Amino acid sequence: MNTKCGFVTVLGVPNAGKSTLMNSLVGTKVSIVSPKVQTTRSVIRGIAMHGDCQIIFLDTPGLFKPNANKRLERAMVDAAWRSEADSDLTLLIVDVSSKKAIGESKDILASPSLQGRKNIILVMNKIDKIRNDTLLAITQDLNDHFDFMATFMISALKEDGTKKLLDHLAARMPEGPYHYPEDQASDLPMRLLAAEITREKLFHRLHDELPYGLTVETEEWEQFDNGSIKISQIIHIAKDSHKGMVVGKGGQNIKKVGEMARVELCELLDVEIHLKLFVKLSEKWADDSSHYEAWGLNPDA
Questions:
Q1: CA–CA dist 117, 145 (Å, integer)
Q2: Any idea of the CA torsion for 57, 60, 62, 68, to the nearest 10 degrees?
Q3: Contact, 4 vs 87, CB < 8 A?
Q4: What is the pLDDT of residues 159-201, one digit of tens each?
Q5: CA distance to 40, 54, 185, 201, per residue, from 32 (Å)
Q6: How many CB atoms lie within 10 A of CB 116?
Q7: 299 HSE (CA, 13 A, CB side)
Q8: Residues in contact with 120: Cβ distance below 8 Å, sequence separation at least 6, in sequence order
Q9: d(Cα 244, Cα 253) in Å, to the nearest integer?
Q10: Quick one: pLDDT at residue 211?
Q11: What whole-number distance in Å separates Cα of residue 277 and Cα of residue 280?
């Protein structure tokens, strides 16, 4: 049987719904999600099987204008554009419920990297949040700005329209052998995925800018004969004043984060998880090249 396999980059501004869409298309959670922008820091590969076709989705950090003095921001935006350049198809995800996001999406379309390209698919997301006549007007406006290969209207959260999108992508993948085993959903190492899940819970639990000043690292991973796993993770914080907020009064914050992460990891791995969290002051963690290597980012971007 002839098989098909190809790469699809999921591109867009922060909080457009890229990670939610990829998780939906893959059929399981491979990328963390939160209401806060810039939750995704690295390129996450999600693998979907659709008939005789394997589609490798690349969930990218949201595109924004990075602060020239912030190494992590520069590396995130660089990773998104590098992923897009190497893909067979690119999905531009637009949050149609946000005028700001629509305007920023037009800025992306004006990028020299996309000019003359014929493999860009427009995906209008969060269509359940606006009126149909407004949606049609926005769709027409965006298509007037760029010659898209196709346009889809979806709600990634409600999985409305995602099946048609998947059919379309599978039909346009090039012939070739699979890159991954058919039962593999991601190439993200479990140690890194576990750290990302804990970071997701911190994003949900903490407020304002605090989540952006920390990162999570899986330090130990020990599996026992009965199948259970002991995981030790370090929450690196950039400022000593953040420690009290991460830990919370009487340790309530870190205890809740640990329990939420443990429950999700138990469901994901189908084994008993013992999770230990520690907070460590690492003022320069955002300049530590070892973190960038683990995330697949270029520290010199």
A1: 13
A2: -160
A3: no
A4: 999 999 999 999 999 999 999 999 999 998 999 999 999 999 9
A5: 7, 22, 14, 9
A6: 6
A7: 11
A8: 89, 90, 92, 114, 146, 148, 149
A9: 9
A10: 79
A11: 10
CA gap 19, 80 in Å, rounded: 13
pLDDT band at 1 (very low <50, low <70, confident <90, very high): low
In three state form, how does the secondary structure of the chain look?
Answer: CCCEEEEEEEEECCCCCHHHHHHHHHCCCCCCCCCCCCCCCCCEEEEEEECCEEEEEEECCCCCCCCCCCHHHHHHHHHHHHHHHCCCEEEEEEECCCHHHHHHHHHHHCCHHHCCCCCEEEEEECHHHCCHHHHHHHHHHHHHHCCCCEEEECECCCCECHHHHHHHHHHCCCECCCCCCCCCCECCCHHHHHHHHHHHHHHHHCCCCHHHHEEEEEEEEEECCCCCEEEEEEEEECCCCHHHHHHCHHHHHHHHHHHHHHHHHHHHHCCCEEEEEEEEECCCHHHCHHHHHHHCCCCCC
**For 194-226, what is each residue's pLDDT tens digit?**
999 999 999 999 877 787 889 999 999 999 999
Virtual torsion, Cα 189, 193, 195, 201, nearest 10 deg: 180
And the tokens for 112? Answer: 């020299």
Q: Does the pLDDT value for residue 46 go beyond 80?
A: yes
